[in-house]
Amino acid sequence: MFRTMLTALLLLTASPAVADMLIIAHRGASGERPEHTRAAYDLAIAQGADIIEPDLVMTRDGVLVVRHENEIGGTTDVADRPEFADRRVTKTIDGQAVTGWFTEDFTLAELMTLRARERLPELRGTAFDGQEPILTFEQVLAIAAEAGIGVAPELKHPAYFAGIGLPMEDAFVAVLERHGLTGADAPVLVQCFEVGPLERLAARIDTPLLQLMAREGGPTDRPDLTYAEMATPEGLTRVRAYASWIGADTAMIEPEPGAPTGLIGDAHAAGLKVAAWTFRAENAFLPEGDRIGDAPAGHGRITERLARFGGYGLDTAFMDQPRYR
Questions:
Q1: Tens digit of pLDDT for each residue in 287-296?
Q2: What CA–CA distance (Å, rounded) separates 233 from 230?
Q3: What is the tens place of the pLDDT at every residue in 101-138?
Q4: Rounded to whole angstroms, how far apart are CA atoms 109 and 124?
Q5: Which residues are designated catalytic?
Q6: What string of DSSP letters covers 108-177?
Q7: 304, 307, 309, 310: CA torsion to nearest 10
Q8: N or C, which end of the chain is more exposed by having fewer CB within 10 Å?
Q9: Which three-class secondary structure state does DSSP give residue 238?
């Protein structure tokens, strides 16, 4: 029954009422527990999230694991592990030089010895550091299935991984096939900032796909294309040829509080549903009009902000603290 209800929402043509807006727990309840951990996902489920989100990267032995980035120096205790000190390197990821420790230089067994840390300790504290291991994608699917909720996996840097001999798309499809999640009724929403992976996945699976967009820049695999161009009515029509959703930076929808753009309406006119990222409660992430007090870690008017976006017709919100839905 729940699978049918969630699928109906994922495939919905008209925008739901504000009270029915889907809430995607962004890396779990990442505002209250270290992101992408079992504790973060369990808390998000307890807080009423409809969908949990795992970001996917790859191990040296080709396993999909859940981390915000393939560089893990800031989200695990790897920097404190002397046996891995010689694996600190500098790499070019999507055109940017990044220094640290990278999942693709570790086997799954090695990664499983690490423990998660809070990525934003200055805002969210460190009380839960060192308690949780890294999860695989299949472990997150099991958590979601047990709870009867959906999953919104994001493929991180698939072009980069393909370039180093780790074809993420193949590994991803194989997992979905093993779990019977390749149909249009699958409670899964596949995300990516790149275009090519989604176009190729559209030819291989019927699972709902979501094209992510940022306020600036463009897809790393399409250097001649910007997200701003993709967000025009003409661009949205092209996106609809392979995806049924867009996931837009909140600033693309509301550059200033109470002053929305026409993006949601244009996307709906193109037959696309709209998710927005990311709703975070801390003042540090809120526009001035939504802040309460001056403390960066203090929580502002996140519920009011979410309600405004619901009024604009938003279908789904990515949230770090789902309890504020």
A1: 999 999 999 9
A2: 8
A3: 999 999 999 999 999 999 999 999 999 999 999 999 99
A4: 29
A5: 26, 68
A6: HHHHTT--B--S-HHHH-STTTTS-PPPBHHHHHHHHHHHT-EE--EE-SHHHHHHTT--HHHHHHHHHH
A7: 180
A8: N
A9: helix
Inter-residue contact 80 to 72 (CB < 8 Å): no
Share of the chain above pLDDT 70, in %: 94
List residues bridging with 91 in a β-sheet.
Answer: 98
Q: Are 244 and 211 in contact (CB under 8 A)?
A: no
Q: What are the b/e assignments for 148-163, b being 16+ CB within 10 Å?
A: ebbbbbbbbbbbbbbe
In which order are the strands placed within the sheet that holds 64-66?
64-66, 55-58, 154-155, 190-192, 209-213, 245-249, 273-279, 316-319, 22-25, 51-52, 150-151
Q: Is the pLDDT of residue 68 over 80?
A: yes
* Cα 33 → chain centroid: 16
| Assigned token pair, 226 | 């910007």
Question: Coil, strand or helix: which one is 283?
Answer: helix
Rounded distance, CA 16 to CA 312, Å? Answer: 11
Upper half-sphere CA count for residue 139 (Cβ side, 13 Å): 18
For residue 82, give every residue at least 6 positions away whose Cβ sits within 8 Å of its Cβ, in sequence order, or none: none
The predicted-structure confidence for 3-52, as pLDDT tens digits, reads as follows 444 555 555 444 444 567 999 999 999 999 999 999 999 999 999 999 99
Mean pLDDT value of segment 165-191: 98
Look up residue 182 and give its two tokens.
């390749």
Please, are residues 189 and 210 in contact by the beta-carbon 8 Å criterion?
A: yes
- Residue 126's contacts (CB-CB under 8 Å, 6 or more residues apart) are 117, 118
